[in-house]
Amino acid sequence: MHHGASVFPPNGSMISQWKLLAEFSVGCFRSTTQPGRLRPGQGGYNAAFLAHSPSPVQSRQLYFRLLRQFRPYGPIVGATLLAVGIASATDVLLIRQLQNVVDALAPGSAMGGMAGARGGAAGGLLGMVQGWLHALLPNEPSKAALWAIPAIICGLALVRMLSTFSGDYGAAWLSSRVQANLRESMFSRVLRLPNKFYDNSSTGTTLSQIAYDASQVSQAGLNVLNVLVRDSVATVGYLLSLFAIDWQLALFCLGLLPLVAIIVTFAGRRMRHLSQSAQQAMGELTNVLDESISGQRVVKIFGGQPYEQRRFDRVVKLNRQLAVKHAATAALNSGVIMLLVGITLSSVIYFALLRAQAGALSPGAFVAFMGSLMAMQTPIKNLTKVNEPLQRGLAAAESVFGLIDIATETDTGTLAPARTEGRLSLQSVGFHYQAGDADSRPALHQVSLDIAAGETVALVGSSGSGKTTLASLLPRFYDVSSGAILLDGVDLRDYQLAALRRQIALVSQDVVLFNDTLAANIAYGDPEPSLARVEAAARAAHAHEFIERQPQGYQTAVGENGLRLSGGQRQRLAIARALYKDAPILILDEATSALDTESERLVQAALEVLMRGRTTVVIAHRLSTIENADRIVVLDGGRIAEMGSHTALLAKGGLYARLYQTQKSVQGEAQPV
Ligand SMILES: Nc1ncnc2c1ncn2[C@@H]1O[C@H](COP(=O)(O)OP(=O)(O)OP(=O)(O)O)[C@@H](O)[C@H]1O
User: Fold this and answer.
1) pTM tops 0.90, yes or no
2) Which one, out of 181, 365, 449, 609, has a CA that is 20 to 30 A from the CA of 122?
């Protein structure tokens, strides 16, 4: 957390400080005329959010929801904010010390000693406390001892250090804690979201929601609170200080502020307008360059050089004119602002001198007054700008909570058998990817199919015929739109999702390996993996030999890029994983690309072991591999066109026979259908 207010006498000349003051008053002006708006070009990512900023009501709900994330840590939030408030208050008091310092320097000032600070001789303990308080908050030339003022400044600096540290530490602790909580709930959501969510969103978006938005949100939640406390305390503190030093001078200054704001706004508007035109002109320049360079062949062939030269000269001239105009306006603006600053500063000084002559303002009081006035600009500026981080944070909060609020997969079933027989029955199954859009063509239509326990059924059909869709319905990656699927005579939806999925192993063409050891990849999902079973599965999947050849055998890590495994080896790992799971139902999404003969033979042998005794649904892309299936189901446009054994279907001379002939005629028999 950055602590904005300057502590000791403001650095830079008083003129430049005053200029800043003028600018911040413009900041106030701008943010009241454009509530809730961020300036364009504040980073691509956030700019994207601006297009759909939440409405005010939503914003409030979002912000309260955001604050609720901090509720479990209430005492820490309280302590952090208290520390932040104390740090701000010490800033105010430190600047106030200028009064003591300057008055002590004034000729004739009594440096003899501070009654209270000298000890309890005069008024006892009470007198001492009064003396110190007087030195801390002086309202007349101080009689403090020389050492008392530096001592107070050191004391304040110590308090400030401790409170700033506590505030920063607390804020970092809180925001990282809330960020971690948000990330955890987002991730646990992501693991349980229905497939539909993944169909409609990109991995990149979800990644950035968890990685980036979560941190934006927690920081925004805290920052806004922080700014409100820190800068409100500072603003009120400085105001009190100004009024305590001289309320009439304070009122006079506050009266001048809006005047400065209005003038600087007008100057600023013209600058912004010019900057925009300059940006456009620069855009045109790069456009012309881009076109003529990338299209240089066309330019040459069609003799376009003079035309391109003229175009370029024109935009260069425009850029040059705008640059001069910009510089002239900037110079004029700063001149006008300087003049304005001079005038306002003179009037404040004039008024202050009048007050001094009237005996109402000591030199120290004047310096402390000006110091407080200058220092006040930062907190006010922060307060008026609090909307910017707030809006950014709210946009991120919308994205974070949006993800957390997405409904997870429906899981209302209660049955949880340890192991089913694996009997499947599809009854008039219909499926639409776009639920509710009855006009769209269904991906599956009136599909009825009984698969006996232990039977191998191959799904074939041209691309887009619905093979993958049908297989996806079995583990309830999607729910049927009409009809029902029964497992052992019970509707899939009556099983608990986890229990249903325990019955199914999946070997798909793109083998997903996690960044862990080979053994952990085979035993994936088992909370208590057994190495003996891992090895047995790997042997049965013809994977043991190549695993043994790895540097650390089964404990070799499948690094992100580390282990180089061939396609066939990866498939045998996937088969070993399915064997380890030992589920009664197997979904096999056959590889489309051919492996070399040796690999193919090993994978086929591994698959034969895997399929033994299991209900197997094969999504077949190459017909040559499924000739031995018990039954072949030919899908066409989401319907079952034919069904039967390989020989029976060939003899029938229908769609299957045609598909088979087509593939046979393509050399190598490796072409997917
Ligand atoms: N996630 C999805 N969202 C919308 N439509 C989809 C989705 N997945 C598939 N489809 C559509 O559903 C129909 C069936 O597709 P499916 O993937 O089941 O066919 P397939 O027979 O497995 O094809 P292939 O052999 O090419 O893998 C196709 O018309 C397809 O465009």
Assistant:
1) no
2) 365
Choose one of 434, 440, 462, 467 to mutate for the ligand 1 pocket test, by most ligand atoms within 8 angstroms of C-beta.
467
- Among 450, 432, 524, which residue's Cα sits nearest to residue 487? 450
| Residue with CA closest to ligand 1 atom 11 | 443
Complex ipTM: 0.95
- Residue 336 to residues 339, 340, 349, Cα–Cα distance (Å): 5, 6, 20
pLDDT of residue 33: 33
**What are residue 432's phi and psi, to 5 degrees?**
-115, 130
* Pocket probe mutation, ligand 1, options 196, 429, 433, 639, max atoms within 8 Å of Cβ: 433
Alpha carbon of 532 to ligand 1 centroid (Å): 40
Distance from the CA of 467 to the center of ligand 1, in angstroms?
8
Q: What is the 3-state secondary structure (H, E, C) of 633-665?
A: EEEECCEEEEEECHHHHHHHCCHHHHHHHHHHH
- The tokens for 332 are 């004029």
- Ligand 1, CB cutoff 6 Å, lining residues: 199, 433, 443, 461, 463-469
Structure tokens at 614: 């299991």
- Which single residue is written with the structure tokens 């010019």? 274
**Could you tell me the distance, in angstroms and rounded to a whole number, from the CA of residue 407 to the centre of ligand 1?**
24
Pocket test for ligand 1, best of 195, 196, 465 (most atoms within 8 A of CB): 465
Please write the tens of the pLDDT for every residue from 590-631.
Answer: 765 666 777 778 888 888 888 888 999 999 877 777 878 899
**Residue 568 pLDDT > 80:** yes
Report the b/e string of 71-108 with b at 16+ CB within 10 A: eebeebbeebbebbbbbbbbbbbbbbbbbbbbbbeeee
Residue minimizing CA distance to atom 6 of ligand 1: 433
Q: Which of 469, 480, 663 to mutate to test the pocket of ligand 1 (most atoms within 8 A of CB)?
A: 469
Which two structure tokens, joined as six digits, stand for 371? 């110091």
Residue 139: what pLDDT? 60
H helices present in 295-376, as ranges: 296-301, 305-357, 363-375
CA atoms within 13 A of residue 663's CA, in its CB half-sphere: 20
Task: Please tell me the predicted confidence (pLDDT) of residue 59.
Answer: 79
Angle (nearest 5°) at CA 667 between 663 and 671 = 45
Name which residue sits closest to atom 25 of ligand 1, judged by CA: 463
Going by CA atoms, what residue is nearest to atom 30 of ligand 1?
464
Residue 673 CA, closest ligand 1 atom number: 25
Could you give the CA distance from residue 648 to residue 652 in angstroms, rounded to a whole number?
6
Q: Which residue has the higher pLDDT, 83 or 605?
A: 83
Among 666, 663, 658, 617, which residue's Cα sits nearest to residue 636? 658
Query: Measured in angstroms, how far is the CA atom of residue 469 from the centroid of ligand 1?
Result: 6
Considering the chain, what is the average pLDDT of its residues?
81
What are the structural domains, with CATH classification, of the chain? 14-106+147-405 (1.20.1560.10), 112-145 (no CATH)
Bridge-based pairing of strands 639-644 and 631-636 is antiparallel
pLDDT at 226: 83
The residue nearest atom 26 of ligand 1, judged by CA position, is 463
